[in-house]
Amino acid sequence: MKYSNPKIPEGINSSDENPIKEFALLASGIIAIAIVLIFSLSMLLDWGSKFLPFSYEQQVATPIVNEYLSEFSNESNEVDSYLQQLADDIVPLMALNDDMSITLHYVDQDTVNGMATLGGNIFIFRGLLEKLPNENALVMLLAHEIAHVKLRHPVKALSKGVLISLVLTIVSGQSNSDMSWLLSGASQLALLDFSRSQEQDADDEATLLNQHYYQHTQGAIELFEVLLAESETASISTLALFNSHPNISERIDTVLKSSQANQWPIQGKLVEIPDEIKQQLANDRLNQEQAVKEE
Q1: In whole angstroms, what is the distance from residue 206 CA to residue 212 CA?
Q2: What gap in Å lies between CA 237 and CA 216, rounded to an integer?
Q3: Rounded to whole angstroms, how far apart are CA atoms 159 and 165?
Q4: What are the average pLDDT values for consecutive 10-residue runs of the chain, which has 295 residues?
């Protein structure tokens, strides 16, 4: 056999396609796979969260809550007791599972917020308490946060937050040490961002409770009016608190429509927040302002 050395055709190791186009297609494929993976696993986690024992959730929550509370100096046990008593009064009306328990924590900070986290722990900030016009609005707030616990929203939010962060970490090529904060301490509270549909579900549960507890829904409307006023005057950083919530005006409209459809009164007797609680809140504010001046 005679050996021959044929000429190699030109362009055999090159592509007619633009390399940027090829990279864009590859990147798009990776992103699409990541999105499908996140969506599929999120749906699985959402379905499976109801099978997670609440006692396990409480065990996970304990160090997180303790670390979070250690950042604040809370001495107003009177306010804690008041909030806890209100919660204990309304919990039996909200049909929580027998293994669930609710623990209220008063946070002596100016932040206008309230939040539910793992293990039935609920934080209510002085900044919001000071703005509430009556106990009816406060009960609506507590019922809203308790509804998040009842519907297992905190554990769903945390699992999805960790999942999304893990997938993005893998796609971006970060090391394990770069995302170690995800599974440590109070930073996990930052992942508990509820969806708009979850917020609406909590609103519905709380409005129903307000009606059962007071025989009218005025407290629900007045709570949302406080939040609406705050959203209109707050700074950009504070407005982040309302980003995941449904439009506040729409929330008021929803309460009005639900009340009309179910023939619930939208006005009725209002219960004042006890004077000693108002005084304690005022004292806490003065003490904090004085401490800031002395720093």
Answers
A1: 10
A2: 34
A3: 10
A4: 61 61 74 67 60 82 83 76 97 95 94 91 95 98 97 80 49 46 47 79 97 97 94 56 67 96 97 96 92 80
Which DSSP letter does residue 133 get? -
In whole angstroms, give the CA distance from residue 179 to residue 182.
6
Say whether 124 sits in a helix, a strand or coil.
strand
Strands lying side by side in the sheet with 114-116: 103-107, 121-125, 114-116
Q: How far apart are CA 239 and CA 23, in angstroms?
A: 39
Here the tokens at position 251 are: 């929330």
Euclidean distance between CA atoms 267 and 44, whole angstroms:
42
Q: Is 26 exposed, middle or buried (0-12, 13-18, 19+ CB in 10 A)?
A: exposed
Q: So what's the pLDDT on residue 293?
A: 83
C-alpha 139 chain-centroid distance = 18
DSSP reduced 3-state for 192: coil
As a whole number of angstroms, the distance between CA 130 and CA 107 comes to 12
Answer for the pair 21, 127: CB distance below 8 angstroms, yes or no. no
* 184 C-beta neighbours (distance < 10 Å), count: 11
| β-strand partners of 125 | 107
Alpha carbons 163 and 159: distance in angstroms, whole number: 6
For residue 14, the number of C-alpha atoms closer than 13 Å in the C-beta half-sphere is 6
pTM of the model: 0.76
Question: Can you tell me the distance from the alpha carbon of 222 to that of 128, in angstroms, rounded to the nearest whole number?
Answer: 13
Contacts of 84 (CB under 8 A, 6+ apart): 103, 104
Q: If you search the block for the tokens 């997938």, which residue do you land on?
A: 167
Pick the closest to residue 285 from 87, 104, 106 (CA basis). 106
